[in-house]
Give the backbone structure.
Amino acid sequence: MTHVPAQEVVPGTVLEFFDEKKMVCGVCLDRKEQRLAVLSEQNREINLSRGRILHCGRQTLSIGLSRDDLVQRLTVITTQRRALMDQVQLQELWSLLEGQERCFGAAELAEYIFAGSLTDDHVA
């Protein structure tokens, strides 16, 4: 899990978190101390603690967009990320890194899997 300092999550930041045992994409609408107001891809507003964030990248959405537009964009992002997930060969990655005695960050693992420049979608 990625630890995300509060100052890095600003309104408009796209992030992923667990909700009801599923990974969900959302956008931060507001930040108050250790909690975030997040709009999910299912069009639900959630009061989220920073500890529930799984991934938070550099990608942002304009929170000036309508709620429907934000949800639509989150749905597109989720679709792209799921398509990329289908390309991940976990057994191949495991065999490549098995026996390593250090931890790998999500961005570093994405570099082993995907060629070319990486986006937040690849890392997520």
